[in-house]
Specification:
By secondary structure, the chain is an alpha+beta fold. The chain contains nine helices and 15 strands. Mean pLDDT is about 90; it is low at about 1-20.
Length: about 350
């Protein structure tokens, strides 16, 4: 009897062991993009493209990918220069995407194992797009400012808690970001008191002009100055170029100067400042950039004064050299023209 029980238990253990699948060391990604005209979808991380997936004539695709790390990470998927979206990937996931190529990220719906992570990221991005210009929050009086920031944190926490089965790495990272939200805005609020609307703007001096010579902020006294801080390697900066060109043309004869300041530096150019400058010059010429095109070279004092930690960054200064908006709307934002109109430009 005892022998039969042992045999039965051993058999049950074998069955349990066989039923526990070994975690997959790769992920599966498939889906369909309606109205698609591209043949390749690239998956990339910070180091570059790690996989290219073929898309057939009907917009469907399916492939596998083995990631080097077992940790989850945010990647991007891209079918063309202007069609880029985030995706959270991890070995073992089995994700299906359905969307419309003409409404690239906005139409995306993910399903399958691990899909909730990317759906959460998209929901978070959508929420961020409703905030509008952060400078408008910083312009509030302190009581209204506190109420607004607390409300934002509550809303972001609510989005986080609405998605079940998030990867632990993503959950921990976003939870920390939500906690840091108030601290971030607090620091920005204190800075805005020093560099808020009507305060004298920090100045840039003797920046290299692509047309020759040097220019400083004081050279534009008597005009509004709309400053674009950018770099040739910055994708979001490049996306704003067509909008900036249109704005420049529309306000060509108005009392406003459009000044673009490139922050291209040596680290991304083999350690050579000469190469960085040449890359900037070549880019300006190839893209036929208008307005005033300047290169900051090795002087970062202007960027540091404005605490520019990410680009593109847009700044609006009045004819007396005082700050109108330290974080002005982007050229693609309709609020920019509304701001110009309110100033009588």
């Amino acid at each position: 009897m005892t022998k039969k029980i042992c045999t039965l238990l051993f058999g049950l253990l074998i069955m349990v062991a066989c039923s526990q699948e070994k975690p997959k060391e790769y992920l599966t990604f498939s889906g369909k993009l309606a109205n698609n005209k591209d043949s390749i979808m690239a998956i990339a991380n910070r180091q570059g493209i790690i996989k290219e997936i073929k898309i057939d004539a009907e917009g469907t695709f399916k492939d596998t990918l083995k990631l080097k790390s077992d940790e989850g990470e945010i990647y991007t998927i891209q079918t063309s220069a202007n069609k880029v979206a985030p995706i959270y990937l991890k070995n073992g996931f089995d994700i299906t995407l359905n969307g419309n190529s003409e409404e690239f990220m906005e139409s995306f719906k993910y399903s399958g194992k691990g899909a909730s992570n990317t759906n959460f990221i998209l929901a978070r991005i959508k929420k961020g797009q409703t905030i509008g210009n952060p400078q408008l929050i910083l312009n509030l009086d302190e009581k209204a400012f506190r109420k607004k920031i607390e409300g934002l944190k509550t809303e972001y926490d609510s989005i986080l808690n609405a998605y079940n089965n998030l990867d632990s790495t993503l959950y921990a990272t976003v939870k920390q970001q939500n906690e840091q939200l108030i601290t971030y805005f607090d620091n920005a609020y204190q800075q805005s008191k020093i560099m808020g609307k009507g305060k004298p703007s920090p100045k840039f001096e003797n920046y290299t002009n692509v047309k020759g010579g040097k220019l400083s902020l004081d050279d534009f006294k008597g005009k509004y100055v709309y400053i674009d801080v950018w770099a040739t390697w910055c994708g979001p900066c490049i996306q704003q170029i067509p909008y900036l060109k249109n704005i420049e043309k529309e306000y060509h004869n108005k009392n406003i100067a459009f000044v673009s300041i490139s922050t291209d530096e040596s680290r991304r150019n083999g350690g050579s400042w000469e190469a960085a400058e040449q890359k900037w010059r070549d880019f300006v010429k190839k893209r036929e950039l208008g307005g005033v095109q300047l290169w900051s070279g090795q002087d970062y004092s202007f960027q540091q004064a404005y605490q520019i930690n990410s680009i593109p960054r847009f700044i609006l200064i009045d004819p007396e050299g005082n700050i109108v908006e330290a974080n002005a709307p982007r050229p693609s934002d309709p609020q920019l023209k509304s701001l110009f109109t309110s100033l009588g430009i």
